[in-house]
Prior knowledge:
Blueprint: E1 2-14, E2 17-27, E3 30-35, E4 45-49, E5 53-57, E6 59-64, H1 80-101, H2 106-121, E7 124-131, H3 135-144, E8 147-154, H4 167-181, E9 188-194, H5 202-215, E10 219-223, H6 227-237, H7 241-247, E11 255-259, H8 265-274, E12 277-280, H9 282-287, H10 295-300, E13 305-307, H11 320-335, H12 343-358, E14 373-377, H13 389-395, E15 402-407, E16 410-414, E17 417-418, H14 423-448
Parallel strand pairs: 1-4, 1-5, 6-7, 7-8, 8-9, 10-11, 11-12, 12-13
Antiparallel strand pairs: 1-2, 2-3, 5-14, 14-15, 15-16, 16-17
Amino acid sequence: xxxLIKQASYVVRAADRVERETDVLIEDHRIAAVGQVAPAxxxxxxxxxGRGRAVMPGLVNxxxxxYQNFLKGLSDDLGLVDWCNATLYPMSYAIHQAxxxxxxxxxxxxxxxxxxxxxxRGGVTCCIDMNMNMDSVFxxxxxxxxxxxxxxxxxxxxLPAPLRRDPEASxxxxxxxxxxxxxxxxxxxxxxxxxxxxxxxxxxxxxxRDRAEKIGIGLQIHLAETRYxxxxxxxxxxxxxxxYAYRLGLLKPGTTAVHCVxxxxxxxxxxxESGATVVHCPKSNLKLGSGIAxxxxxLARRVPVALAADGAASNDLLDMFExxxxxxxxxxxxxxxxxxxxGRQAFRLATEGGARAAGIAAGTIDPGKLADLVVINxxxxxxxxxxxxINTLVYCARSSDVESTIIDGQLVxxxxxxxxxxxxxxxxxxxxxxxxxxxxxxxMWRGLA
Length: 449
């Protein structure tokens, strides 16, 4: 089916390109034309009235841990290490028991469906999920219409013994998932994700680098998130986490370096030289008390930057409108400089920056680009009067203003109705499953003490 968005009041083609009273034609899974379109000879054409609407590129959540959707609203008074012990590990143990021992992947399907519902409703058309990825996660993306990059997580140390697996078995399973899904589905891709230097031996980091290069996929890694990490890595290697990753050849185009909170000027120079994309997670870094990444410095040195919500346990939402607004406001306040990160820069990080991080031809509305778009209903009290559409979208818009979401040329939500799933059914099933699964995880974890 082709889609024509007719006479959109605003078509935000990019952060610095906005057109008025414009049509957007989508054919197959790509944008076919932008302008005054008079389609002829298209038999199966759905027309969407764009009057009173803004059409914009879909938002990209460039780093998350979707299993944490079962952990919302927990632990708002712990730093990263204590938070892992108290909040993450019970759930992780339950997941490992289900997956490794009972070979049951139902948990992955439920958390992936639940998170897809939230993101699609909020105008997110693609996410990068660093996870104990399973086939069931990708099946949920297929069913929901979500576009996703499965960042297959790897670690071989530091974790408590019950969460560890034979290192060779873990590597081979990760490799199998990455290979099986790489290039086999138009909306799904994989990367390898050595979690962070203090969770990964040097051997594992080099293994991930070499295998990713051999397969032809990218890498995602947490770097310089906390002072604890800085101390651990410096003590072991004599280098900052950024310098260590750079010298191991991990930082390069196709790598996403998540957080980069505690970085030096020399680190920023290495990031700029490497071509890696930094993924900024402002709300997660604030909730865990990790600090604030020097994003204005990075942008000034032309470091590519994307935005992400991180996991729902350290953010509680997968709301990229909120994340974009936070990215703009946070740095203005911290730097006492209203120009530190402008609305247009924040918008670019959430769209073009995210598309770069995910390695997809999206992020702007141009012919030939993937048709990952959202339609915003501008007829809302908090959106009028509308003086500058970019600033309005960044500082005023809410996820609930998303009226339609198009992913890969498929209308997955229209007039706020999910078209790919029975939303009430899958939401209630996931909610029941998640509550019981977390309860079981806590009980099992306590039983190990």
